[in-house]
């Protein structure tokens, strides 16, 4: 086995399917979510209209996420939508480029169904589910051009898409996935779902204050000292709530993207063509545009770094999803602080926070133990996983098993202390 600090090539190995891991945990959490949100739903339909409206922002994101998750299990609807939207048709079987692409794809995803739109040159390719285990790939005119001008880069694009099929990602994320669209646009969801009800609340409270019989100076004081700061803390708390809901699936999707990039490198025995593909086909996004429109794809510079990295870098990629639980904790702390500061003094606030943090670590300890076990088993399970979803089986590669052992120790030992 290779040392974790070795400068040897880190090709081989893959990231565990954190998307499916998160999805299973999400379904297991649904009974607890129902118990938590039941009083909020009851208040929503109670006689106290204002109180119900104020609680809408806390309820809707989880409800919309549930819809997004449930729609995962209707792949034929997604396929029908994509084929109509992109005007995908059966390809011209006499095209030499198509014959070459088909032969190339069959090596990695046997039985994949190809449809094309030669008129669209602004697109390259994407995979989409035709059923639970049947996959289609859309090939566009832009890819055919790239195939003729830079075949190796075009192959890297196809390998990346094939990887999503082999790893089982295509059923959950990708083109036409309402789940991914929802996760990607959660900041927009925050603006749409949180601001209107909160503005309604501020307006109602302000009208009540200014219609009261207290002196005008006291009205202003109440507005600027109580209503506005309270509303800001509510907005901050709602941002923390939405972040805590979406940060884990976002990082799970990131892991799937890194995994697909890694498959390209493993197959081509080099990162050169992947880096070329990232340089040529990835549009430049500002930080703001990336947050709003591309949040489910890691920043290009991060993907380029991951493509060049050695074993220590692969270790960080493996630990990316477990580390997301700390980001989740920060979001929950922000959520809790926004509420505590409205009610308690600082001593009680920090005491409650410390207690909640201890409870949080105890709650995630079993999940981290499960991750540690998955790290140890994944090099053996991955070949069967890819065979199930992709239809072909790669040979086992245990040369970098040390990385998985280190990952299991990093995740498992703290989890045992938290239990």
TrEMBL record:
Record-annotated Peptidase M48 domain positions: 124-307
GO function term, MF aspect, one: metalloendopeptidase activity
InterPro entries membership: Peptidase_M48
Regions that span the bilayer: 20-38, 50-74, 186-203, 223-254, 314-337, 357-378, 398-418
Pfam families from the UniProt entry: Peptidase_M48 (PF01435)
Record note on cofactor: Binds 1 zinc ion per subunit.
UniProt keywords, alphabetically: Hydrolase, Membrane, Metal-binding, Metalloprotease, Protease, Transmembrane, Transmembrane helix, Zinc
GO BP terms, alphabetized: proteolysis
Cofactor: Zn(2+)
Family, similarity comment: Belongs to the peptidase M48 family.
Stated name of the protein: Peptidase M48 domain-containing protein
UniProt organism field: Candidatus Methanogaster sp. ANME-2c ERB4
């Amino acid at each position: 086995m290779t040392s974790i600090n070795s400068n040897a090539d880190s090709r081989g190995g893959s990231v565990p399917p954190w998307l499916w891991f998160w999805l299973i945990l999400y379904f297991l959490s649904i009974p607890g979510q129902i118990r938590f949100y039941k009083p909020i739903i009851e208040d929503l339909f109670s006689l106290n209209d204002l109180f119900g409206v104020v609680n809408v922002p806390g309820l809707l994101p989880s409800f919309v996420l549930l819809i997004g998750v449930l729609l995962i299990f209707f792949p034929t609807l997604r396929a029908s939508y994509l084929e109509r939207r992109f005007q995908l048709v059966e390809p011209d079987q006499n095209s030499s480029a198509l014959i070459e692409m088909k032969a190339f794809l069959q090596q990695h995803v046997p039985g994949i169904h190809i449809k094309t739109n030669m008129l669209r040159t602004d697109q390259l390719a994407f995979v989409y589910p035709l059923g639970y285990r049947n996959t289609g790939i859309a090939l566009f005119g832009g890819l055919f051009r790239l195939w003729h001008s830079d075949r190796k880069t075009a192959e890297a694009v196809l390998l990346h898409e094939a990887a999503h099929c082999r790893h089982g990602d295509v059923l959950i994320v990708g083109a036409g996935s309402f789940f991914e669209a929802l996760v990607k646009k959660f900041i927009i969801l925050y603006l749409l779902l949180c601001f209107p009800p909160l503005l309604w609340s501020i307006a109602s409270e302000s009208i009540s204050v200014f219609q009261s019989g207290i002196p005008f100076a006291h009205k202003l004081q109440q507005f600027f000292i109580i209503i506005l700061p309270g509303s800001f803390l509510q907005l901050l708390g709602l941002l923390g709530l939405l972040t805590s809901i979406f940060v884990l699936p976002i990082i799970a999707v990131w892991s799937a993207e890194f995994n697909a990039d890694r498959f390209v490198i493993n197959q081509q025995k080099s990162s050169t063509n992947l880096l070329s593909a990232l340089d040529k086909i990835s549009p430049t996004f500002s930080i703001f545009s990336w947050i709003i429109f591309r949040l489910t794809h890691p920043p290009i510079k991060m993907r380029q770094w991951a493509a060049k990295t050695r074993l220590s870098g692969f270790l960080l990629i493996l630990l990316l999803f477990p580390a997301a639980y700390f980001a989740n904790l920060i979001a929950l702390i922000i959520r809790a602080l926004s509420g505590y500061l409205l009610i308690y003094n600082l001593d009680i606030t920090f005491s409650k926070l410390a207690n909640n943090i201890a409870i949080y670590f105890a709650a995630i300890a079993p999940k981290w133990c499960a991750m540690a076990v998955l790290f140890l088993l994944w090099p053996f399970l991955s070949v069967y996983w890819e065979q199930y979803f992709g239809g072909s089986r790669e040979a086992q590669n245990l040369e970098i098993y040390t990385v998985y052992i280190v990952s299991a120790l990093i995740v498992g030992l703290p989890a045992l202390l938290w239990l």
